[in-house]
Amino acid sequence: MNSGIHFVYCCIKPRNISSAQSLPGFVLISVRGLQSVLVLLTCWYVSAWVDAVWGFEFTHTDPLDPVIEEEIKEDPDVFKTIYKQLLPFSAEDDDDTRSVWVVFGENGVSAKPLLAVLSYFILSAKAKSPSLEQRLCGLQAASLYLLLLKIPGSVANKVYHQILFDTCLNMPLKCWPQDSGKKRKKDCLKSSQGDPKTGKRSKPPKKVSEEEQGVYFSPQDLLKLREGIVLLVRTLLRLLERFSLRDKPQSADSCVQSLPELSYHGLGLLCSTIHGEGDEVVFRKLLYVILMMKTQERSKPCLLAPSQAVCGARDQAMLFIGHIVDKQREATLPLLRILVQHICHQMVEKSEYRVSGAQAVGKLMAKMPCQDYAAIIKWLYSYSRNNKVAFRMFALDVALVLLEQSERDVDDTVDPELAVFLPHRFLVHNIIYNHRNDVSPTVRGHALHCLAQCLELGSQNATKCVHELFSNSKYITTLWKLYNEETLTLFKKHVSDPKTNARKSALETVMSLLKHGVISCSAENLSILSDRCRDPAVSVKKKAMQCLMDLLANREVQEAWLRGVLPAVMDSESSVQEKALECLDHVVIAHIKSQGKYRDDDTSQKLAWDLLGLMCEKCQHLSRYFSKAFSVWAPQQKFTPGFVNGLLSHTEGERAAAAWLLLAKIASCSPKLNYGTVLDTWENTIRSPVVSVTMTCHILSVLGDIASNLNDDTKTRIVGKCGTFSLPLEVISSCVDTLVRFSRSDNTQDTLRFLDRFCGELVSVCESYLSAVILQEKGAENINEDLLVKHLHTLGVASLHCPSKVGKRIFLVVQSVLTPSEQPGESMQLYELPASQPLSQFKPNSMSTVVRAQAVITLGKLCLQHEELMLKYLPVFARELEVGTELAVRSNVVVVMCDLCVRYTNTVTRYIPNISACLRDKDPIVREQTLIMLTNLLQEEYVKWKGALFFRFAIVLVDPDPAIVDLCEYCLVDLLLKKSPLMFSQHFIECIFHFNSYEKHKKYNKFLQTESRFSLKGRQNQGKRFRIYRFLLKNFTDEQRFNITTKICQDILATFVDSELPLDSDGSELLADTFDILSLKEMKLTAMSGPAAGEEPQEDEMAMAKAVLQVAQKKLVSQVQKRNFVENVIPIIISLKNMLEEQHSPVLKHLMAYLQVTMQEYRSEVKELFAADEQLAAEVEYNLKRFEKEKQQQEQQQMENQLATNVGGQTGFASPLNPRGTKGPAQTPKSADALR
């Protein structure tokens, strides 16, 4: 029997044997063998070797004697065999079992050499690239050591050693084959760029040695290693049941780290009372499991990819913590509070981790009693005001999760000052809603998103709390009503937030408020969604359309849906077009079925026809967008014969108008129609005493599409029906259009003959009627105004297609409608009146404004075909714009003149000042009409930015009508600026002179100032001037801002220094405006602006690369800007300051305000920059210090106000928060213009 077996049996005391003398023979032989081995070891160097191992504290061992090592290794399972023999001695419940330590002592065997030998094999397994045999022996030796610790009396025999114990716990990780470095890092999301806050690069993954990479383990080898690890873990679990770690915190922590994440039996054992504070160690380990992080030695924890395994481990950890809290409630509640705080403190900004963490916090807080729950809510309120974006975001997530739980009732255990934190109302009002105006756009948007989600929760309390914010109930006070109205007004402004995500969240919230009846589905509220379908951001447009889709079940939303979705069909972004087409197809086209399949209870079908009905009535102006959709669908062969026949079945009845609307759109691209049905419907319609304008126009459109399939007799019959003047004006226009489409043929002469024939007949009929009414004596006594307008309108539209049939008598007739004479005999002289005489200055006549306005349109159409007539009446039209008093006439004159500009560009261009003067017309309709028409001319380049046109356009930005202001901003930025990117910067300097009506400069503002209504001079108009300045500067590029600063100094400030411009009252106003402009925050380069207050960089490679680039760019731009400031600005400022001081000018305070704002960026360089003027440097220093002191006082006052209205301070238990966390997010600093 080898020495290893001798060693085993000497340590064994079989059960029920009283003394060593009663051992069987083979046992006695084993003991004698063991004694001879111990004598042999003592004779050699074993005693010194054991002392050396203990001296090194089991961190290092010298090689064991090869002979002894080989004898022990002859049996590969030697330690496993010893383990099995010693296992019965580890039970404490068997009183008959004699202690193994007594047997060891009786035989002179000490634990000291035994532990030394075990440590040798344990450390051998931890060596570099150990073999399979070394790993197995190390695992078995570690299991045997833990078993010895479990045997009663191990502490007294000094078996426990912290380093050896921790080494054994670390054996599974060391013995199991590790993957390569890349694979080990696979699940880690931390960037290789390092920590963005410290700027340090993380250490590269340690390369695996060639020897370890060359080791190969077969499945059988891995199975053996697995069995060894399982044995070690089981032994550890048995050990933890009896062996106390109360005074061994380091070993308890090692136990937690060594146990697999799902060994919750062992973690549960550590939480028992025999281990003292073991539950705190366990909670600390599970913290990172809940956070889905991986802890690493001497480095920050890194995020793990949220795989199924990681999420499963997180869920198991939550169940385990809940079990421990239920089992040991009083002992674990303080730890539970601290755990919740640490989860909040270590939360990252990534959304999927925040959502997971918030769910975990909600489950943990559900285990708390009301007192602790309220205390945590109080702490959460302070946490939500931390200056870190991630903290404020996570606080919103936690609040939303807590709202899903049942509301806590106040009981006797809750302190009175904490009772206010229990209701859901506190979470909704004080945490979620209070962040709607957060300084960070990310938090702002998320707060709005959470507010919308509150309405989707099953909790009635949360919904009720949101209703309170917008309620207008008669039971609430007037003050509360005013607050709610202000809340709704401010809330609507969030849909215009500068940040895209904030706007999307605001739209989602508005949709939820409308959906749940918190706010009414009024046209004003619904326009918030429909208007955002034209947002500059693509994602916002799509979000707005989706919100409208979600609300479409409400009948009140249908019109807003059409106004939002239909225009998006012609959006500049193809993805938005596709979204709009998808919505139209899903809601309208897909639910059009034949008459026999229509069901009133089918909401989808009813909705489709209701929308089509709206397009035939209230939303007729959107028809052109609908036509665009069909032009896209036509090549797709979307409209089958079955679809067309189904539409035809609806052409009679209540859905007839909607059916003809669709037929009018698809007639040109659909398969062969049933022409008989179309013609029969036309006959019935024309004979009907009540004509549906919309449906008749659509029928005429279908007739025009099928013109090639109609014979001449049918066309003639249809044209004959169109010749009646009993039809409405819109139908008459459609009739003429259809007539023109009938005339189309391959032979141009045939087309002209057809038009001369039928359109000539219409012109002749109109001429005869108008002559009889207007030119003949007593013809106007019994005038029919409606019939007169129809003849004028028909004359205008028909004359465009047969100019050869229009004679001078027709010109006279139309002119006579505008300026009739008293006697018929004078009629021919009227045509020879001076052309410069305005229409409105002729003798008043009996014609109404409606007739005169229609006559202007008809005269304009005649001018389009006859240049000599245009030359005669163009000055008349221009004069009419100046002195005319009739709104309809002026509006139509603007349209006529702009149409003539397209036809006769060079001639009409000189009258553009007359047209642009209507931008300040007293009637908003004329102003809007002029703005639209001029924008179209500028887009097509029929008109250039000459003279005062730009400044008249810019002054519309301060129009009293907000709708016109919005339209002007859209025209300038989205239409005209894209075509001329330098437009704003080229006119900005002259804007300063023009709006101050300053004409003394030799270069600027040299055009005539004939219109006082375009002047913004004076202090009373300062706000309007700066509204324009800010708008222009906001749309500058950084290059333009830099150049305009230099140009202002050279062209304005320097001219006063060189005495080119006098410093009189007008000059002082101009100079004050200039300094105030230079102080505007819009003048600051965007490259010099840091991230938004409260924003933190995201820890990903793209964000970090962008941040590094921005820092480098900012540094470069700062150097260039500083050089320009020193070389070009400071000398002028110093000279100008001396001049202003000499004259005691009030402009001096504007100059100092500008320096105060500008020198914020050069706070430490004031004396250096103003070395040429020490007094000015001292004044600037004093002003800066005073400003900083005032700012601190304001911040302190804000803090006091917050504390006065605060619901309470922090709780007394441990908090990982920064002390500054209670100050809330940093507020936006005052703008530069406000510092004045």
UniProtKB/TrEMBL annotation:
Record key words, sorted: Cell cycle, Cell division, DNA condensation, Mitosis, Nucleus
Source species, domain of life: Eukaryota
Keyword Cell division: yes
GO biological-process terms attached to the record: cell division; meiotic chromosome condensation; mitotic chromosome condensation
GO cellular component: condensed chromosome, centromeric region; condensin complex; nucleus
Region (Disordered): 179-212, 1190-1236
Coiled coil spans: none
UniProt-annotated location(s): Nucleus
Occurrences of domain Condensin complex subunit 1 C-terminal (ranges): 889-1053
Keyword Ribosomal protein assigned: no
A Pfam short name: Cnd1
Quaternary structure annotation from Swiss-Prot or TrEMBL: Component of the condensin-2 complex.
Protein name per UniProt: Condensin-2 complex subunit D3
Organism: Cyprinus carpio carpio
